[in-house]
Amino acid sequence: MKIRTKEDYIKSLKDQKVVIYYNGELVEDRTTFPAFIPHINSAAKTYELALLPENEDLLTATSNVTGKKINRFTHIHQSVDDLIKKVQMLRLIAHETASCFQRCVGFDAMNSLYMTTYEIDEKHKTKYFERFVEYLKRIQEENFMLVGGMTDPKGDRSKRPSQQADPDLFTRVVEKRKDGIVVRGAKAHQTGAVNSHEIMIMPTQAMGEGDEAYAVVAAIPLDAKGVTLIFGRQTNDERKFECGIDAGNCEFGMVGGEALVVLEDVFVPWERVFMCGEIDFTGMLVERFATLHRQNYGGCKGGVSDIVIGASALAAQYQGTLDASHIKDKLVEMLHLAETVYSGSIACSAMGSKTKSGAYYPDPLLANCTKHNITRVIYDISRLAHDIGGGIMATLPFDKDLRSPVVGKYVKKYMKGVEGVSTETRMKIVRLLENMTGGTALVESMHGAGSPQSQRIMYQRLGKLGQKMKMAKKIAKIDE
Amino acid sequence: MRRRGAGDGLAVDKRNLTNGAETGIKKVALKYCGGCNPGFDRVAYAESVKSAAGPVIEWVTLEDEGFDTVLLICGCETACPLRSIDFSRYRQRVSIKNDKVSPGDLVNILLESEEANED
């Protein structure tokens, strides 16, 4: 089915029966389960906004393979302008959800595979690119949601995949058949998995000799036999079941709704396999996916930060501190930080270049720098939000207390700020700030799209330190 | 003929306008930028322009046919569609980058092009 609307999207999820566990229980219907609804609502925005004339310029594109108008989340970047529009789109959607909308991971998987399969074929005379383009046409036509499955559990990080005590800690091919392959392992922290249709598994790192079985890329429907999803626990997750003020952002939730995706001897036909044993291209694929994904963060986190800044200003207004000079100064600092991360995403896009496949690729050094800034700046923005919002964020009574026939009057009386603003309104904004600036939301900024150390490794590789030393020598007039 | 407003976020670009007002109703294609971080509510502004225009303007999209004029509503000075869309095929483009121009004035500008052409 071709998914156009939010209703189409939800129906498609309902029609596909996926094995998902939440808190030890099998979820019967993922579309009506309270813990998943906010994540479904977030991802649905990627469909809804594409239908609005005021947003279609960012949310849609023209396919380079079919010439048809498609959702941008299924597009292969054809220019620097496409790279910039991707970032602009992410900021726009973040303004609507104040939360992760998950679909960029599959988007980045598609783009990294398009350019990498082209180059694998060029060297190895394989047919992966052709296969991938056929798969891409299907995604563009049906507009389904793809999980970008890169992160393996990895077990003992000091050992290579083939050296692990348990060989399944990196996803691998356990059998090659005439008609396809059998895959075993798991993908961890999979954003949007419980409300997606398929997962694209990819190697988690550069593979060396002996790791050939781990050099595998394949598209797997999430209802395939042997696939089990286990949803990750989030900060204050039980508040979603209450559907009240305490959830903070009850419609769209927090971060992406991550899950552990277990692959227990899953059969994948060859037409869905886009790498199988080509260890020499694993590093390139990982780096390209990481760069494309790190490009995003100033867009989506910049947009989410816009909401945090707005909520902080409202919290200050509701308690009568908005005009204090130190509050104004902190808000200005937050604005500076949000625009700084956005600038990084725009810069790496503006400096993007064309790959052999024709697809465009952001500047990898600047993209890594962008994500590295996120690992710090979002904490800084959140710290300032906590400073402005006040201790009430951590001590506010329950929503039910506000509505209690016995103590409600006390909550209304003593939690009130300025005249003209109800206690309930003040509580709503404080809870929104709490939702967006603590716990899971912060950890995602640190580790999503790779931990800070992975970005620092890229600085060492791409930072042209030797050239900088030469330039310093020249200025200092050192000849030796 | 080309006229550009400075500082009011308005730009008018007229090329080879012909009289297309046989019916008395002018067709104008409304196009928005993507809206990544707009400085004003573009949709509310467009609605107020439509309201000010009443029945004298028939609003269409760029995908339709039979119009000379495009009203481009952008959320900021960057006006991304000017970079990514070739507007030279349209005879008149009026672009808005903020909401400082009153909807009534904007409607007059959109309609004025025909009068100018008749001169």
General description of the model:
The complex is a heterodimer of chains A (480) and B (119). Chain A is of the alpha+beta class and 480 residues long. Chain A folds into 2 domains: 6-278, Butyryl-CoA Dehydrogenase, subunit A, domain 2 (Beta Barrel); 284-463, Butyryl-CoA Dehydrogenase, subunit A, domain 3. Chain A has 16 helices and 14 strands. In chain A, helix 7 packs antiparallel against helix 13 and helix 8 runs antiparallel to helix 9. The model of chain A has no long low-confidence stretch (mean pLDDT 96). By secondary structure, chain B is of the alpha/beta class. In chain B, helix 1 (42-53) packs across helix 3 (103-118). Chain B is globular, with a radius of gyration of 13 Å. Chain B starts with a strand and ends with a helix. In chain B, 32% of the residues are buried. Classes of the chains: A alpha+beta (480), B alpha/beta (119). At the A-B interface, helix 3 and helix 4 of A face strand 3, helix 1 and helix 2 of B.
What is the molecular shape of chain B?
A: globular
> Based on helices, strands and strand pairing, what is the structural class of chain A?
alpha+beta
Spatial arrangement of strands, main beta sheet of chain A: 2-1-10-11-7-6
- Note the overall shape of chain A: globular
Number of domains of chain A: 2
Distance between the ends of chain A: 68 Å
CATH superfamily of the largest domain in chain A: Butyryl-CoA Dehydrogenase, subunit A, domain 2
CATH fold naming of chain B = Rossmann fold
What's the N-to-C terminus distance of chain B? 12 Å
Structure summary, number of beta strands of chain A:
14
Q: Quickly count the helices of chain B.
A: 3
Strand content of chain B: 15-25%
Largest sheet of chain B: 6 strands, mixed
Q: What order do the SSEs of chain A take from the amino end to the carboxyl end, as H and E?
A: HEEHHEEHHHEEEEEEEEHHEEHHHHHHHH
